[in-house]
Structures are given as C-alpha cells and as structure tokens.
Design brief:
It is built from 20 helices and 21 strands. With 602 residues, it is α+β, with helices and mostly antiparallel strands. Strands 1-6-5-4-7-3-2-8 form an eight-stranded mixed beta sheet, covered by helices on one side. Strands 9-10-13-11-12 form a five-stranded mixed beta sheet, with helices on both faces. A three-stranded parallel beta sheet has the order 17-16-18, with helices on one face. Strand 2 and strand 3 form a beta hairpin.
Length: 602
C-alpha cells in the first residue's frame, strides 16, 4: 500500500550544505549518484566478509540513458534498503547512512565508504524534475520499495515488485537539461568522475561483449615493484590522452603517517616559450574530487600530469578547510619532497638521462624554486646550465670566489657569470667570448630572467649575472688608454642618439665595434615592458675597437668619409645587438650604397 509523507530536513544544519551543491558545475551529480551506488556495493561486500550476507561474484553499477522516456537511470546490486531505511536516509537527509554504517561496523573496518547517501542523492535534483527509487534490501523477507518525489516537500513511498537486491535511481531529466540524456555526454562524465571507482560501471549494456567504462584496479594502487615501464606509459596515455611518452614518473605509495597513493608524470614540454599547465587529478578512495587542487598539490607541481588518491581528504570539502588543515599541509610537503628526491636520484644515478631531459625539466624546476623555498634547498645543487662548449654543469660551479662582507661594503662585487639569452642574436658576442677563451651559460627559457635574479638574491656574495652583451669591454679588452681623437669622431656622428662612446682595444681585431647595455638598465627596461609600463629606453654604449684596422683607417680619412664610415660601423654593431628600426634600415642601405659607389670609383 502506498502512502504519502513530508520530507523532513534539519534546515538549520543541512540547507547551507544543500545550497552548496547548486553551483554551475551541475554535472557533478552523476559522480554523487554513482558513488552512492559504489557505497552500497562496498557495504554489502563488508557484510559478506562479516558473514552476515550471501556472497556475490558480479558486483556492478549500470547506467542507462533513455532519450525517449527522458530518464537517466543508475542501478547497483549493493546492499539495498528497506522502507524504514528509505524513510531515514532519503526523507530525513540530516542523517547519514554511511556514518551509521561505519559506526556500527567500525571494529571490522569502515574504510571505503566514500559518500553520505542522503545529501549526495539530492544533488540529482539539479538536473531532474522527478526522481524515483526502486530498492530491495539484502535482508530476507523484505519487500521491494518504491519512492518518488519532485524535489518539493512531499514524496510517495510504497511497495514495488522488485525482486533483485540493490537500488535503482531513475532521474526524470528536466526539459532544459536534456544533454544529460545523451550517451556521449554521460560517457564523458563517467570518464571524468568515475574512471577508477572500485566496482565495474557499464553504460547502456547490451549483453554482448560489454566492457566497463572504468578501471577498477588503477595502476597507482599496485606496488611500484609490480609495475612495468610499459604499464606506466599505457596508464599515462589512457588517463591524459597524451601520446607522447612521459620523461619519467614518481609512484607514491604511503600508509603512514597518512594514506597516499598516486603517480606523478613529467611530460615532455610542447613549447618552450609557454608555461605548460599539466593536470593533477585528486581522488578520494578512487572517486574523483577535482583537478589541480593547489591546497593539496603545490602550485609548481601543476606543471606535471598525475593522479593522487588521498583517502584522508573528505570527498566534499571546502577550500578553506584544505587551506587550514595541517594534515593536508603535510601531504603537500611530502609530495614536494618525493619529487625532489626523484630528481636528485636521477641526477646522481643516470646523469645522461637527466641532462637529456633538462630542456623539458628546466622550466618546472626553476618555477618550483621560485615558488617553494624547501624545494629550492633540496635541488639547488642539481640545477644545471649548458656552457658555450655545450657541456651541462651545475650553475653553482660557474660562481667565483665569495666576496667578504667587508669587501662588499666597500663596493666589491662577485665575479660575473655571463649568459646568453638568444643564441642567434648574440652570435657575434659568443664568437668573441669563445675566441678569447671565456665562458658563458645559455639561458634560453622565458623564466630565466626571473630565476637569475632569484639566484643573485640567494647568493649575493657569490654571484652576479651579466648578459653576454652587457660588458664586452670589461671582459675582452686589452690594457691601454682611450683614443680621444677616435672617440670624438664617433661622438660627433652619434650626437642626439643617446649613445655613449668608448674606445677600447679588444682582443678580437676583426670586430670593429660592439654595443653594450648595462645589466641594470636592461633589466629595468624589461621589467617595465613585462608589467605593461611601456618600454623604458636603456642607454647604450658603443665600444669602438681601436685594434680594428678599419677603425684605425678612419682617422686619416676625409671628414665626409669619416662620418659615413663611422655611422656604418655603428649600424653594424647595432645589428648584432637588436633589429634595426625602419628608419635605421633606410639610412643603413643608403650609406652602404654610397660606400660601394665610392669604392668602385677608385
């Protein structure tokens, strides 16, 4: 006999929580309904283990879409419910079926209960205008129960002719939510939220060669020693739809002081100039919580791809809880430590592989150092840079002798470490350094300007970085006095161009002149550009090479020839520093044409 009743809600406690479900990401309802079905199976399995229920070999959850009927159905063969339990766990949603169950059987182990049945069930009303339940308890002698409600304050409950143990949730999808009747959409959501749930999930089964949509024993649950390289790669390809093999991975497997399992993958970087954002999926007992939860996964680790399963983190929990929970903070620190340990192990035990992977690792490691002090302390000795000879060395090996505090007070600076930021643009400077037997490091990732400043801040008495075009005169000049006459020629020609002129005897006699811009001025200009403050002009210095024969020939040339030749030398130096502006190109071509004509007339 069917009867009618009112849904009772402990509103002062539950309504704020229920409202929290009603956010834009409606599709999470499917996770909740399927998780409840998985819960029901887990409960039955525990009863079997306790000898209180008959054994079941084929646990499963079935999801069915019916566009014609307008229904989405989720059915399990779990513990089922009696009418009394439906009244308690569905109509009085302030109670929690899972909590009651765990309290009763906690001595036998209550792990694996992944949801609170009542509240999760009500999330389905975000997309449904009517929900029916057909259920039958595992208890012998109990009848099938039918429950229905449109989500308002009333419901109906009574007997039904269901004979199989378990529960069926029939959601009548609202008119404006019809996308949830499409099998493709439901498959997508099951893949997103339910990929690793512990019992098989079938979508619209036909009875012929049906395959579950989930993996009930994901690789991260296995012991690392039992996993092969090919299994790790296959899991990566299937989970992240990336068909480039990862560089390497870290298998996390802890039981104390907190439970944590997972695999973190280091992917190949697609574009060096971009900050590639990975995807670290967070799970609770094989139930998906969210991507990239920065309170659990440190921000810099978001560059990785991975799966983390933390049973100690509640399935439905606020960000503020995660931010303030000390256990969560310990988990984040542990993950950071394991990543650092893996990098150190690779550096020490397989240096060749580490160096071959560095182009993909560099951005990640440097970003991690900038964001996490503890991570920097762990990996500072394995941060490597390639020198002009193409050899990788720890960056600290390029540092000079430490400057004492007293010398620093008197203005003494550490020996500079020169770096190349653009191999093509700075090719002339590189050649000059190589010819002079000097070294420099290649810094060709977008994060390097910030990272070099960071290293200077961390090691103020040991290192300062200068771009290879910042102080060529200081690095490559021979001893000697300036040539005042030569300097005057160039200063007159370059009047009004905000260029300082120096005459030095450089070691490379084939170079007529080079452009220098001070490291401080250039960094300031770059910072202004980066923060959208406009490009601030960085005053340049033209270093004229007195050892160059063409430069020396200037002094005896007619004044008009001096003017054009000096300007041409300036433009040649400028071209090795930066691209010429349109006006400079026009002037350069005109001077070059005139010089050719004069040469041919001789």
């Amino acid at each position: 006999m069917e009867k009618q009743g009112n849904i009772r809600i402990a509103s002062e406690n539950m309504m704020p929580i229920i409202k929290k479900w009603l956010y834009s990401d409606k599709d999470i309802f499917l996770r909740e309904i399927v998780a409840n079905a998985q819960d029901a199976i887990t409960k039955h399995k525990k009863l079997v283990d306790l000898g209180e229920a008959a054994a079941e070999e084929n646990y499963r959850v079935t999801v069915t879409t019916d566009e014609k009927a307008g229904t989405l159905t989720v059915e399990d063969n779990g513990i089922g419910m009696t009418e009394e339990e439906v009244e308690k766990y569905i109509t009085q949603i302030a109670f929690s079926g899972a909590a009651d169950f765990v309290d009763k059987y906690e001595k036998a182990g209550g792990d694996g209960i992944i949801g609170h049945f009542g509240l999760g069930f009500y999330s389905a009303y975000m997309v449904s205008d009517l929900i029916e339940i057909e259920t039958k308890s595992y208890r012998e002698g109990t009848a099938g129960v039918h429950w229905a409600s449109d989500g308002n304050s009333t419901y109906t409950i009574g007997d039904c002719d269901r004979t199989a143990r378990g529960t069926k949730i029939i959601m009548h999808i609202a008119e404006d939510e019809k996308e949830f009747l499409k099998a493709s959409k439901i498959r997508e959501l099951l893949h997103k939220y339910c990929s690793f749930m512990p019992y098989e999930i079938y979508l619209n089964p036909t009875g012929k060669d049906d395959k579950p949509v989930n993996t009930t024993h994901p690789l991260y649950l296995k012991q690392p020693k039992d996993c092969t390289d090919e299994e790790y790669k296959q899991f990566y390809r299937e989970t992240f739809s990336d068909f480039n093999d990862p560089l390497f991975w870290i298998h996390l497997n802890m039981e104390y002081p907190f439970r944590l399992k997972g695999i973190l993958y280091f992917p190949k970087v697609k574009k060096q100039v971009e900050l590639e954002r990975g995807k670290v999926k967070l799970y609770c007992n094989q139930v998906f919580i969210a991507d990239n939860i920065k309170e659990v996964i440190p921000e810099f680790l978001m560059l990785l791809n991975g799966v983390i399963d933390c049973p100690d983190i509640p399935l439905n929990v606020s960000r503020s809880f995660l931010q303030n929970d000390k256990q969560v903070q310990k988990i984040a620190k542990h993950i950071t430590k394991k990543v650092a340990d893996k990098l150190i192990e690779l550096y020490k035990n397989d240096r060749e592989r580490y160096e071959n992977s560095w182009a993909d690792l560099a951005t990640f490691v440097k970003f991690g150092c900038l964001k996490d002090e503890e991570f920097y302390k762990r990996v500072e000795d394995i941060i490597i840079y390639k020198n002009l000879a193409g050899e990788y060395r720890p960056v600290s090996s390029f540092y000079g002798e430490e400057v004492s505090e007293e010398d620093a007070k008197n203005g003494k600076e550490p020996q500079p470490v020169y770096y190349v930021s653009d191999e093509k643009k700075q090719v002339q400077y590189i050649k000059m350094f190589k010819d002079a037997g000097l070294d420099a490091i290649y810094c060709d990732t977008y994060i390097d300007p910030h990272f070099l400043s960071f290293l200077e801040y961390k090691n103020p008495t040991r290192v300062r970085f200068l771009r290879i075009d910042a102080d060529v005169a200081g690095a490559l000049k021979e001893d000697g006095e300036e040539d005042a006459d030569l300097k005057a020629i160039f200063e007159k020609v370059l009047e009004g161009k905000h260029v300082t002129v120096k005459t030095e005897k450089l070691k490379d006699v084939n170079v007529s002149a080079v452009i220098n811009v001070s490291e401080f001025a250039r960094r300031l200009s770059e910072m202004h550009t980066f923060y959208g403050m406009g490009e601030s002009p960085a005053d340049m210095t033209l270093v004229v090479n007195m050892a160059n024969s063409a430069v020396q020939a200037l002094k005896g040339a007619p004044e008009d020839a001096q003017k054009h030749a000096a300007m041409q030398i300036y433009y040649l130096a400028l071209m090795n520093y930066r691209p010429l502006t349109p006006d400079e190109v026009t002037d350069f071509v005109a001077i070059n044409t005139m010089l050719i004509e004069n040469y041919l007339k001789k």
